[in-house]
Write a structure and sequence with these properties.
It is a single chain. The protein is about 50% helix and about 15% strand. The protein contains 14 helices and nine strands. It has a six-stranded parallel sheet with strand order 3-2-1-4-5-6, with helices on both faces. Strands 7-8-9 form a three-stranded mixed sheet. The radius of gyration is 20 Å and the shape is globular.
Length: about 300
């Protein structure tokens, strides 16, 4: 009996091989999908090419040989450029291609891009992700998806190769709304953990023992379990850049103004993050939100 998995037939293109995208693309290669990649900065694709991926000269060339095209870039202008700029995806994609945008951008921009791609006969899902570089590497990401149900059903097997939780939340833009909410919740969580760590240190307690005691209780969270050690050590190696989180909070605050929601904790987090970035720490992990809390507490 042949127990091998059937061959993957969808040809995948992947645009954007940064901290998250490179791991996600590697997991697609590992799952057996034929993969073509393109990245704005040359050289980022070398390991993937060595693993069997093909390198494209432009997003248009990548789209011309793909059935599904992933995007994982920084912001709305980059997504628009990759999709509709010179030698963009829209120029190379044939009718029936599906774009899956894993970037974190405005839901308003997402709906506009989906409408414009529809004119080319190309579908689109907004599918921002959460879980940090660890989740991208281990294929345990949470993926929040907006778009047509049929496109979601088509994409689900592919998305399941890069994420452990894949949820269809509604029409175009719904995934980006959920990601904005995710980033807002994270802002409060990081600040709360930073304050708790600062209090433990000021009290002369073994902060790691305190974390170990709390992590399985009501105060437990992914942040407490995975980022408290960095806050204790006051060292913030990259998982998710604080400068990118600051960009995401702007999206959340704009949406809040649109619907009349009040986000005081988010506003406080943006103030702290602006200061951290101004001090030259924008490439630190988001757990660097502990920096101003530690400083205000007289720890540094």
């Amino acid at each position: 009996m042949n127990l091998e998995s059937p061959p993957r037939t969808e040809r995948i293109g992947f645009v954007g091989l940064g901290t998250m995208g490179s791991f996600m693309a590697a997991n697609l290669v590992g799952a057996g999908y034929p993969l073509t990649v393109w990245n704005r900065t040359p050289g980022r694709a070398n390991e993937l090419i060595a693993s069997g991926a093909k390198d494209a000269a432009s997003p248009a060339e990548l789209a011309s040989s793909s059935d599904i095209v992933f995007l994982c870039v920084t912001d709305s202008p980059q997504v628009e450029e990759v999709l509709f700029g010179e030698n963009g995806v829209a120029q190379g994609a044939s009718e029936g291609v599906l774009v899956i945008d894993c970037s974190t951008i405005s839901p308003v921009a997402t709906r506009d891009f989906a409408d414009r791609l529809h004119e080319f006969g190309v579908g689109m899902l907004d599918a921002p992700v959460s879980g940090g570089s660890e989740g991208a590497r281990l294929a345990t990401l949470t993926i929040m998806v907006g778009g047509d149900a049929d496109d979601f059903d088509r994409a689900h097997p592919v998305l399941s190769c890069v994420g452990a939780t894949v949820s269809h939340l509604g029409p175009h833009g719904a995934g980006q709304w959920a990601k904005a909410i995710n980033q807002i919740i994270l802002a409060g969580t990081y600040l709360g953990v930073a304050e708790g760590i600062a209090l433990a240190l000021k009290a002369g307690l073994d902060a790691q023992k305190v974390v170990d005691a709390l992590v399985a209780g009501a105060a437990g969270s992914w942040v407490l379990q995975n980022r408290s050690a960095q806050m204790i050590a006051n060292d913030y190696p990259l998982g998710f850049r604080i400068s990118l989180h600051r960009k995401d909070l702007d999206i959340g605050l704009a949406l809040a103004r649109e619907v009349g929601a009040v986000l005081p904790i988010t506003a406080l987090a943006t103030t702290f993050e602006d200061g951290i970035i101004a001090e030259g720490h924008g490439d630190d992990d988001i757990s660097a939100l502990a920096r101003p809390i530690r400083r205000l507490s007289g720890l540094d």
